[in-house]
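Note to self: keep these together.
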Amino acid sequence: MLGEISKDSSLEIFILRPCIVAGPEALTLADSMPWNRLPGPLRAVAKMMPILQPVVPDPGFPLQLVHHDDVAAAIALAATAPTPPGSYNIAGDGVVTVADVAKVLGGRPVPVPAASAAVSRLPSIPSLLEWLHVARTSVVMDTAKAKTELGWRPVHSSAETLAALASAV
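Structure:
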């Protein structure tokens, strides 16, 4: 839509499409976990007693994360480098799983391939379960264009971004 609006303009349009942004200053992924919305004392008890850690349905699909600093670097390149305008996927190298995310953020992953599909059939989805839709399908981007044309390289892999997020929460 942006391309259509600007097609007769001299503007150079850059569309950066990051995957899930995370890191020590981007806590939305951690904050979206239902158990992280519990009062502090209840969260502390759950951390001390693994049996109380919330179960996280894991449909088994890979996903990517991108560190907030790597997104900032992509924005800086789009604004300053002699790069062709266009759309660029921005994601850290490698993948993580819902199980990886759950483990480092305080949940217990349980393999359930149809979990999200079952939740999507409910007439009304509680807001605490909306994060499950992230894992309904593989969310893996091809970042080759950003690397070759924009000259962007992520400093942090998806796994390193998850570790940085975990250390901040």
